[in-house]
Amino acid sequence: MNTNCKYKINLASRNEGVFYSDESGTYKFNEILHKKEWKLYLPCICAETNKICDLANDREQLIIQRITNYLESIRWLGIFTRKYSVRVIKNNSHEPS
Q1: Residue 42 and residue 53: Cα distance in Å, rounded?
Q2: Can you tell me whether residue 93 is helix, strand or coil?
Q3: What are the domain boundaries of the chain?
Q4: What is the pLDDT of residues 32-74, one digit of tens each?
Q5: Distance (Å, rounded) from C-alpha 9 to C-alpha 20?
Q6: CA 26 to CA 21: how far, in whole Å?
Q7: CA atoms in the 13 A half-sphere facing the CB of 82
Q8: C-alpha torsion sign, points 45, 46, 49, 55
């Protein structure tokens, strides 16, 4: 697995998901910011086919780590700057609860 490949992560507005793109494709992960914690739901959806993707375990772990780092780096400004942790949830129904 090439861990030095170029990739891009986008957080869509209104809890529409996190999009991860690299040379092998684009993947959408459901997410929600709830009670001061990001919840990232698995499995992901392949954006090209709009079907659930089964990624190899090492690839899935690499992508999840990159998305986790991205979400944890977002700082919400206000009176006090906040950062939120990420919890990965394996959800077979693919519907955030």
Answers
A1: 9
A2: coil
A3: 8-90
A4: 988 989 999 999 999 999 999 989 999 999 999 999 999 999 8
A5: 5
A6: 4
A7: 11
A8: negative
